[in-house]
């Protein structure tokens, strides 16, 4: 990828002084399933001075090519063959971190309805152009996008480094620049997004409220819902996300958020219903199917959960089958009492493959695999992580794995402490049913009730 | 000037009729290009091919317009609001207008708004491209395109020194203008509603240039 400073030099110096063609050094990728249109776009870029133009005619080919040779500018058609769209590609690339912010992504489409997508969703291209268009239109739009990238480059760099607080501060600095008027709305949008990612929920909520005061964009309403959710204000989160869905029925990310809110509130049946509906309309969104599998698992529908994970692992060629998926499948099998299935899911995976020490995957793998070994080996494996389980903050599903393992190896004290921690935490509604099921399987119902009562009493006292 | 609302279905029909005529024109030019190439004058076919491309591009735009009109009639096309930086929007519109324009009429552009506006970028751009092309078609020597924001309203004005709008706006194809563009502009203006105010389209006589005046307003 072209370094941002070079890009700035090209456009700020050479282009302005007329000393060189700023488009010549950029690397382009055209993604279009129709041969004639692909060639037309290529000629369009070449007529601007573009030299290196890579091409892809299909979704998976585009992902492979981008992964192997990151372009500076991607021109992508919206329709990419049966069941595939450029928007799906964009979302997939952004979600998997395979599209750096400095890379320009321009969608071209003959579908007027695409504007409705852009006005509703969070993940949008840098620009979109409705067909038919002239080479000059493409050039004007491309230059505009590149100048935007140059304007935001320090922000993007800070964000890529994970310095989110500094990135937010940088936005304040950018706001004071003379060109800021052109990017005023983009600054508002990326500020709200960055505050959300950095966990500054109160500020993110305020940032989205400022946007909604200008116009009630569904994506901004969804942003508000996320912030409310992070603040534990579930009723307000639910209202905000309902408004987003009412405004744009095809805004599927909003369904994911709504399902998440249902899970937070312990309504797993509704979460599964919502995600089933959304997944039926987006059959190739494997991330959504992972969420659905999780919701089904929480809902006690272990067969569905398992079937979905098997489907994800067989089909997700982009996200690849990651260790997390294998763990999830093993977890589902264990819940169904299928030790063989769980072993098959984790076949060939070692502790070293399971992720960095102290990562959630490391703990999940250690706990689950310990339950699949013979007793001595299993206990030995569990002992390696036992002392860390209370010390480290783990996702709820991993804590449940640990409780299951602790009870299997007769460490009731650890199981009780973990259970208490879960029930006292924000996600207690997610954990309750699964943990109760585990205690019941060990005929420890009374013990579970005692912990539950203790947590409830302490809660009342604190209130 | 009062804009007589044509029978909605006629708008779509006239748009299709208009496109059909342009396609016949393109087909005739294709025949001409083939004959020219057969006669061994391939290089002479290039300007004919350029005209064919222009005609087909025009057909695509007209069909898109007809489809937009159909959706507006069926209420299937609520506006797609996106933030647009107005000077950039005007630049885009002028790139489209000047792309197929071969000169002769002076174009004066008055820029008096540097702000962002939330609007349906594509449909507003289509409406203005259509208005400016109409002005260029009918003007004797000059047109003026201006935009400004005032009192929470954004105004786009297109004026020319031509004969002005007819007393009754066309509700069917008159060979020059099917009326689809004006129909969309009117509907889309009214669909832009914000803080209790809605957009509007006014057609009238230009006080300064003496010809037609197209005045589109959109609320903040």
Structural commentary:
- The complex is a heterodimer of chains A (463) and B (220).
- Residues 1-5 and 14-18 of chain A have low confidence and may be disordered.
- Chain A is built from 23 helices and five strands.
- By secondary structure, chain A is mainly alpha-helical.
- Chain A has a five-stranded parallel sheet with strand order 2-1-3-4-5, sandwiched between helices.
- In chain A, helix 4 (86-95) links the parallel strand 3 (73-77) and strand 4 (104-109).
- Chain A folds into three domains: 1-147, Response regulator (Rossmann fold), CATH 3.40.50; 162-265, Serine Threonine Protein Phosphatase 5, Tetratricopeptide repeat; 352-463.
- In chain A, helix 9 runs antiparallel to helix 10, helix 18 packs antiparallel against helix 19 (375-386) and helix 20 (396-408) runs parallel beside helix 22 (428-441).
- Chain A starts with a helix and ends with a helix.
- Chain A has helices at residues 4-17, 35-47, 59-68, 86-95, 114-120, 135-161, 164-175, 184-197, 201-214, 218-230, 234-247, 252-264, 268-281, 286-298, 302-315, 323-335, 339-345, 360-372, 375-386, 396-408, 412-424, 428-441, 445-462; strands at residues 27-31, 52-56, 73-77, 104-109, 127-130.
- Chain B has five helices and nine strands, in the order H-H-E-H-E-E-H-E-E-H-E-E-E-E.
- Chain B has helices at residues 8-38, 45-73, 86-99, 121-138, 180-191; strands at 82-85, 106-112, 116-119, 142-150, 153-160, 193-194, 197-198, 200-205, 212-219.
- In chain B, the strands form three sheets. In chain B, strands 2-4-5-9-8 form a five-stranded mixed sheet. A two-stranded antiparallel sheet of chain B has the order 1-3.
- In chain B, a hairpin with a 2-residue loop joins strand 4 (142-150) and strand 5 (153-160).
- In chain B, helix 2 crosses helix 5 (180-191) and helix 3 (86-99) packs across helix 4.
- The radius of gyration of chain B is 18 Å and the shape is globular.
- The two termini of chain B are 24 Å apart.
- In chain B, 39% of the residues are buried.
- At the A-B interface, helix 5 and helix 6 of A face helix 2, strand 1 and helix 3 of B.
């Amino acid at each position: 990828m072209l370094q941002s400073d070079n890009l700035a030099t090209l456009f700020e110096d050479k282009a302005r002084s007329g000393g060189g063609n700023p488009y010549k050094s950029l690397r382009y990728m055209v993604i279009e399933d129709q041969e004639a249109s692909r060639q037309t776009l290529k000629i369009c870029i070449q007529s601007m001075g573009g030299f290196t133009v890579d091409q892809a005619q299909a979704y998976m080919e585009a992902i492979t090519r981008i992964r192997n040779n990151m372009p500076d500018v991607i021109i992508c058609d919206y329709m990419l063959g049966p069941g595939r769209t450029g928007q799906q590609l964009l979302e997939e690339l952004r979600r998997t971190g395979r599209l750096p912010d400095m890379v320009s992504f321009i969608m071209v489409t003959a579908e007027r309805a695409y504007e409705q997508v852009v006005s509703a969703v969070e993940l949008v291209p840098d620009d979109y152009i409705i067909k038919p268009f002239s080479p000059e239109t493409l050039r004007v739009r491309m230059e505009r996008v590149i100048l935007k990238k140059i304007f935001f480059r320090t922000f993007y760099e800070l964000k890529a480094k994970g310095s989110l607080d500094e990135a937010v501060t940088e936005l304040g600095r950018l706001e004071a620049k003379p060109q800021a008027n052109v990017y005023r709305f983009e600054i508002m949008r990326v500020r709200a997004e960055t505050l959300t990612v950095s966990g500054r929920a109160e500020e993110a909520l305020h940032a989205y409220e400022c946007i909604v005061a200008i116009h009630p964009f569904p994506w901004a309403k969804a942003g508000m819902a996320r912030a409310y959710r992070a603040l534990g204000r579930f009723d307000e989160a639910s209202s905000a996300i309902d408004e987003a869905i009412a405004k744009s029925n095809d805004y599927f990310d909003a369904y994911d958020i709504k399902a998440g809110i249902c899970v937070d509130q312990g309504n797993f049946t509704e979460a599964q219903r919502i995600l089933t509906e959304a997944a039926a309309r987006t059959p190739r969104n494997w991330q959504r199917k992972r969420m659905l599998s999780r919701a089904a698992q929480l809902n006690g529908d272990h067969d569905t959960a398992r079937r979905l994970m098997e489907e994800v692992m067989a089909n997700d060629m982009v996200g690849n089958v990651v260790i997390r998926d294998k763990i999830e499948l093993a977890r589902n099998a264990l819940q169904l009492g299928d030790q063989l299935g769980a072993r098959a899911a984790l076949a060939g995976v070692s502790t070293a493959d399971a992720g960095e020490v102290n990562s959630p995957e490391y703990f999940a793998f250690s706990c689950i695999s310990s339950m699949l070994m013979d007793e001595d080996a299993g206990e030995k494996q569990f002992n390696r992580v036992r002392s860390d389980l209370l010390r480290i903050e783990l996702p709820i599903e991993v804590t449940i794995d640990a409780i299951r393992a602790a009870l299997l190896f007769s460490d009731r004290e650890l199981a009780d402490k973990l259970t208490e921690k879960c029930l006292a935490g924000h996600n207690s509604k997610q954990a309750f049913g699964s943990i109760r099921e585990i205690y019941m399987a060990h005929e420890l119902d009374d013990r579970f009730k005692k912990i539950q009562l203790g947590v409830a009493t302490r809660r009342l006292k604190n209130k | 000037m009062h804009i007589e609302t044509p029978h909605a279905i006629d708008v779509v029909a006239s748009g299709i009729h208009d496109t059909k005529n342009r396609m016949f024109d393109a087909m005739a030019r294709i025949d001409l290009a083939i004959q020219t190439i057969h006669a061994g004058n391939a290089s002479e076919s290039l300007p004919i091919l350029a005209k064919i491309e222009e005609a087909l591009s025009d057909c695509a735009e007209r069909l898109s317009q007809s489809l937009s009109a159909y959706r507006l009639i069926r209420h299937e096309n609520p506006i797609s609001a996106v933030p647009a930086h107005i000077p950039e929007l005007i630049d885009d519109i002028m790139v489209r207008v000047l792309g197929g324009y071969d000169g002769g009429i002076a174009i004066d552009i008055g820029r008096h708004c540097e702000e962002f506006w939330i609007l349906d970028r594509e449909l507003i751009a289509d409406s203005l491209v259509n208005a400016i092309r109409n002005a260029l078609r009918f003007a004797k020597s000059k047109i003026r395109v201006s935009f400004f924001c005032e009192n929470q309203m954004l105004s786009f004005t297109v004026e020319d020194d031509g004969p002005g709008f007819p007393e009754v706006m066309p509700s069917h194809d008159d060979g020059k203008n099917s009326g689809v563009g004006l129909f969309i502009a009117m509907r889309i203006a009214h669909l832009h509603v914000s803080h209790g105010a809605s957009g509007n389209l006014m057609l009238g006589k230009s006080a300064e240039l003496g010809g037609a005046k197209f005045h589109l307003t959109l609320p903040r």
